Amino acid sequence: GRGVLPCAMAALGAYRCIECNGEATELYRDYQRGVLRISICKSCQKPVDKYIEYDPVIILINAVLCKAQAYRHILFNTKINIHGKLCIFCLLCEAYIRWLQLQDSSQNTDPDDLIRYAKEWDFYRMFGIASLEQTSFFFGIFITLWWMTPEMLKRKSDFILLLKALLLSTYGKLLLIPAVIWEHDYTPLCLAFIKVFVLISNSQAIRVTLNLNRILPWFAIFFGLIFENGVVCLFQKMGWDV
């Protein structure tokens, strides 16, 4: 309940209404002695951010369900600076999955050899490839959005906010590790579902950040995937296992 309120007020500047995306000067007003009143949006006449009273677990569940209100709460009305660390950890997860697949294809079951194999540079190579692929994916998204809606990305802060939103929306890649730990016959299908879930999260992040319709974010993601697949083809022509 009220334990999350100070965190929501940590960021200075304008906030956003999670319902209509309108700007607000405050999320709640403190009348002292534990009396708090959530601010009402002047545009839609609804609470600016009902999530400031919710438990973080409920907010996370709503984010997993890709609700726009939860995304606006996280992106605009809270001060979260974990996007960089989250990105690195997600890339490590993806690199680990690729490293395991490369290891399985070696058909060498000598334990000593596997230990030496783990010390080689294959894992770091996979991390580098995953990083370049994600960078090209984001690059394709930025180029498409800048071309289609240049008025939405006029300032440097707009690019930074969109990048932060995209990085945070890749949290679905954390599910790669459980999918491998609980390995079964449907693991490839699970990995495909995780990929789709991440793309849906990316689309919602773009839509909420730039206040767009549902079509344009998917159009940008489509071109992002084209750029990413172009990098994959380049690596394959170089003879690298990706």
From TrEMBL:
Any one GO biological process: intracellular sterol transport
TM regions (residue ranges): 126-147, 159-182, 215-235
Source superkingdom: Eukaryota
Membrane topology per record: Multi-pass membrane protein
GO cellular component: cortical endoplasmic reticulum; endoplasmic reticulum membrane; Golgi apparatus
Subcellular location: Endoplasmic reticulum membrane
InterPro entries documented for this protein: Arv1 (IPR007290)
Signal sequence interval, chain numbering: none
Pfam families: Arv1
Keyword field contains Transit peptide: no
Keyword field: Endoplasmic reticulum, Lipid metabolism, Lipid transport, Membrane, Transmembrane, Transmembrane helix, Transport
Record has Transferase as a keyword: no
Family stated for the protein in its record: Belongs to the ARV1 family.
Role this protein plays: Mediator of sterol homeostasis involved in sterol uptake, trafficking and distribution into membranes.
Protein name (record): Protein ARV
Species of provenance: Mohoua ochrocephala
Organism placement in taxonomy: Eukaryota, Metazoa, Chordata, Craniata, Vertebrata
